[in-house]
């Protein structure tokens, strides 16, 4: 293991039996010396908890911000994306499993300091950096240092996360995030326990914390899995909870599942199910509900909740009509569209640009 990628952490304590307990997430892994947590990248080294992937990445790529997905945060702009390896959940349906469940240091093939990431993002004209591909919770220290460097370069930070984090590190982390898309994987404890190896309540608490106690822009994504989290009852309960606790202006994304990893026995999600989920959200009072991983222009576009006019047209990741005023309001009726917008949209489109760098 590259010693330069190992840094000490602060969210842990020593147990009476000599093990170290990680306090970063609700899993609270209790580790003997030289033992790694479930996340793979946090380990007990000489009775201290260390991060073993600092400055190391599974890859860098410039994506459209819509791919995160974030539809109400600087539409049309490029985002510099990177991740590391490992994850603190064990989702059987993981669609980035080759990265998130990797136990190979070779996965972390690219190296970059926080300053280098910020400078490279600026060089390519990226408005933001996304901590994605695997969950940034587990590379907490690296992500925060990158976010600090980005802020010094007037670049925003975006967390793509499952929201499975404990209160104290959560508060520190979201001081530095400007936007987040949180996977609300389901709305039942049964699903979280059986399918992800986690629990629902900590995720709900993260969502409430972001929305109610920070300035971080928030959107959610739910991957709809046939037979697991697609019942009308569960989707209704989820959407009603969102409106009550996060407000009607928080965008919700409902994405199509495809068989992967340890859930090859489930069929892909039909468009009709995604449409049902979206309609349930709108009926519950969610103003902005979208579908993902399928082609549906109307369900991917943003509409004025007041006069129903088309505000932002989307065809996959390509923007079309733009009917927002310079201050982000409907040109027809003047109703503001919730979100963070420039006076004009970006023109990055659907391009995906891998970036190789070192140092």
Please supply descriptive tags for the structure shown above.
single chain, 359 residues, alpha/beta, TIM Barrel, 9-stranded mixed beta sheet, 3-stranded antiparallel beta sheet, 9 helices, 25% helix, globular
Whole-angstrom Rg? 20 Å
Shape: globular
Uncertain segments are 99-107
Series of secondary-structure elements, N-terminal to C-terminal: EEEEEEEEEHEHEHEHEHHEHEHEHEEEE
Give the averaged pLDDT, no decimals.
93
State which percent range the strand residues make up: 15-25%
CATH topology: TIM Barrel
Total individual domains: 1
Largest sheet: 9 strands, mixed
Going by helix content, strand content and strand pairing, the class is alpha/beta
Query: Helical segment tally?
Result: 9
CATH class: Alpha Beta
Shape-level CATH architecture: Alpha-Beta Barrel
> What strand order characterises the main sheet?
16-15-14-13-12-11-9-8-20
Helix share, percent: 10-25%
CATH superfamily: Aldolase class I
* Total beta strands: 20
How far the N terminus sits from the C terminus, by CA atoms, comes to 17 Å
Please provide a written account of the structure.
This protein has 359 residues and is of the alpha/beta class. The protein has a single domain, classed as Aldolase class I (TIM Barrel), CATH 3.20.20.70. Helices cover 25% and strands 22% of the residues. It has helices at residues 97-100, 114-123, 140-152, 167-174, 189-196, 201-213, 232-246, 271-284, 297-300, and strands spanning 7-8, 12-14, 20-22, 30-31, 42-44, 49-51, 56-57, 59-64, 78-83, 110-111, 128-131, 156-161, 179-183, 217-224, 252-256, 289-292, 302-303, 310-315, 318-322, 353-355. The chain has a 9-stranded mixed beta sheet with strand order 16-15-14-13-12-11-9-8-20. A 3-stranded antiparallel beta sheet has the order 1-6-5, with no helix packed on it. It has a 3-stranded antiparallel beta sheet with strand order 2-3-4, with no helix packed on it. Helix 3 (140-152) links the parallel strand 11 and strand 12 (156-161). The protein starts with 6 loop residues before the first strand and ends with a strand.
